[in-house]
Amino acid sequence: MAITGTATDNPARFPRLSELYRQATAQTGSAPLPIGVHSPGHVAATDEQAREEYWPTYRTFLLDVRRQRGFPEITREYFEHEVSYGSLYVGSPETVAGRIVKTMTILGATRFDLKYGMGPMPHAILMENIRLFGTEVAPRVRERLRLPVARS
User: Fold this and answer.
1) Residue 151 domain flag
2) Domain count, the chain
């Protein structure tokens, strides 16, 4: 089962879906597949830097979609709320790792995919995001959840 975060989706509202999924597979005699989470985000050296780098990208990405659907333009306050309470995983490696661990624990998930590269972000900033996620966030998450290192 994949849980894809969208703006306004607080991960804490999904545990019931995880439980329903497990119940349904048990009732049909199927073995449940692992639960994964896929949410947008951005990692930088500090929380402030991550927010400042991601805000214009996030806003631009959603601007056309929101206009097409008749939704109001996104505000900075909305963005900040989503970073703090929604499905945006934006912050320092420590902040993002902590939020991922909390979400995976609540949902019983075994996989988390950070959706990066949404919108017009400068290449160097995007690459630093990927580096920090792989070298600082993922190891913290694995350690705290006692997950094995994936091998390719």
Assistant:
1) no
2) 1
Q: How far apart are CA 130 and CA 44, in angstroms?
A: 9
Identify the residue whose tokens are 């692992």: 34
Domain-located, residue 150: no
pLDDT in tens, 67-119: 899 988 889 999 999 999 888 999 999 999 999 999 999 888 889 999 988 77
Tracing tokens 């900033």 back to the chain, one arrives at: 125
Which pLDDT tens digit goes with each residue over 29-51? 988 888 888 899 999 999 999 99
pTM of the full structure? 0.83
Contact in structure between 86 and 11 (CB atoms under 8 Å): no
Q: Which domain holds residue 101?
A: 2-145
Domain-embedded: residue 22? yes
Q: Which residues of 29-61 are buried (b: 16+ CB within 10 A; e: fewer)?
A: eeeeeebbbebbbbbbeeeebbbebbbebbbeb
Amino acid at position 58, single letter: Y
| Block residue for tokens 């975060």 | 5
> Quick one: 119 exposed, middle or buried, by C-beta within 10 A (0-12, 13-18, 19+)?
middle
Token reading at 63: 């601007």
Query: Do 43 and 50 touch, CB atoms closer than 8 A?
Result: yes
Distance CA 114, CA 4 (A): 10
